[in-house]
Amino acid sequence: xxTNVPMLLTLFRIAAIPGxxxxxxxxxxxGRYLACTLFGIAAITDFFDGYLARALSQQSKMGQFLDPVxxxxxxxxxxxxxxxxxxxxxxxxxxxxxxxxxxxxxxxLREFLAEIRIGVPVSTLAKWKTVLQMFAIGFLIVGDxxxxxxxxxxxxxxxxxxxxxxxxITGYDYLHxxxxxxxxxxxxxxxxxxKG
Length: 196
Hints:
- By secondary structure, the chain is mainly alpha-helical.
- It is built from six helices and no strands.
- It has a single domain (5-185), classed as CDP-alcohol phosphotransferase transmembrane (TM) domain (Four Helix Bundle (Hemerythrin (Met), subunit A), Up-down Bundle).
- Helix 1 packs parallel to helix 3.
- The longest helix has 34 residues, at 152-185.
- The radius of gyration is 18 Å and the shape is globular.
């Protein structure tokens, strides 16, 4: 299971995170470009692992679990590292915060719905949000190290704001769908308990 191509791509996305972190710690222009390259490659695998899993009929429970986890780890690590190094600062912290909070909320919602055997399909808008988010983060990683003729930081910051708006929309959609299922299963006599 762990040796098929889709799973290896997902695992690569997770394995790339320490490399991206180390390159950002270099705090040099070369480090930023290399970190952006590694991040870009990792982000691209998000498309290919799902596509190949369906095309090769290699979908698995492990893959369904690890794929969104890998995405969230990659995005969270990049946003936190850039915030720590000041590449994301001021008001730009707000869209980054929105994105991180939404990912935590959706993860919790998926965990709850999985317990009652209900899947949460990824919407088309959510997929576009992810693409835009990855592009924005890539530009922000390069930041001021980009060529003078290209407003790299501005492109990244604008993209992150737009991604945050899409994040709010898709997050609300997921929450609304989840609340409907919660209402149908919220029986005081069903013995449900809450985890802290």
